Amino acid sequence: MSGRSPTATRLFWTVVLGGCAVLRYGAPAFAATAAACFAILLHRLDRPRRFRSLVRRIARRHAATLALRRRQECFVDAYGNTIEDGWLRERAYFVERTVLPIIEERGFADYVEPHFDAMEAIVERVACAHPLPDEIDTPEDGVAYERYCAERLGEAGWDARPTGASGDQGCDVIAEKAGVRLVVQCKRYTRPVGNAAVQEVAAAALHWSGDMAAVVSNAGFTPAARKLAGTTGVILLHHDDLSTLAPTRRAGRRVMTAGR
């Protein structure tokens, strides 16, 4: 029996046990056995709907974050093309790390590989359907964008100031709160920010005696930048995250987290 599907196994034992009951109780047992087999088959046929419903419920629990990340990771490049690479990576990451463990736990492990695209499509629809506040227009000019980022940090209670165009050593904004100094590099780009910015702000944090370092951008980050940030401890943020950025202390060292 080990090679059979759960549905086939249930049907087999239902028929076997039901057949024994029929020999003893006759027609009533036959009717009960037939009804049980029909219920098992109906449950099997309804499995795709239950799978889609489960994925949808999981995605809806994170709808606000998914919608925001979709907006943050999609941008228009200098040629007018909509670039969604960052969002596609984020969507796949959400499915792999958040959806799949629950799907497998609920008995849909056999759906993972053949229905991965379907899960991504459900997540996409949930993210698109969730309403978000109107996006604030950000300055096109780099220096103005630095001032804009400093203002957003101020909304979160930071004492923030731009460093100016000259002699910044890779630091565009210095911010302090609760004894934590944050060194920020701001990138108003039409393409994802690469790992050079991560290297620069990591060095700037040493130069400015910063407790933490961050790169802020409107256009997302390349996989190489994300990997290097994970190694160096640099935080990668969208400017939407700045107004809720708060210093926290964890395991005896200073880290920064973006509140939602």
From TrEMBL:
Chloroplast listed as a keyword? no
The family database entries (InterPro entries) matched by this protein are listed as: Restrct_endonuc-II-like, Restrct_endonuc_IV_Mrr, tRNA_endonuc-like_dom_sf, Type_IV_Methyl-Rstrct_Enzyme
Keyword field:
Membrane, Transmembrane, Transmembrane helix
Q: Which Pfam families match?
A: Mrr_cat
- Statement: the UniProt record of this protein carries the keyword Nucleotide-binding: no
Gene3D superfamilies assigned to the protein according to its UniProt record, in alphabetical order: 3.40.1350.10
- Restriction endonuclease type IV Mrr domain ranges (all copies): 143-245
Span-the-membrane segments of this chain are: 12-42
Sorted alphabetically, which PANTHER family does this protein's record hold?
MRR RESTRICTION SYSTEM PROTEIN (PTHR30015), SLL1429 PROTEIN (PTHR30015:SF6)
Provide the protein name: Restriction endonuclease type IV Mrr domain-containing protein
Originating organism: Methylorubrum aminovorans
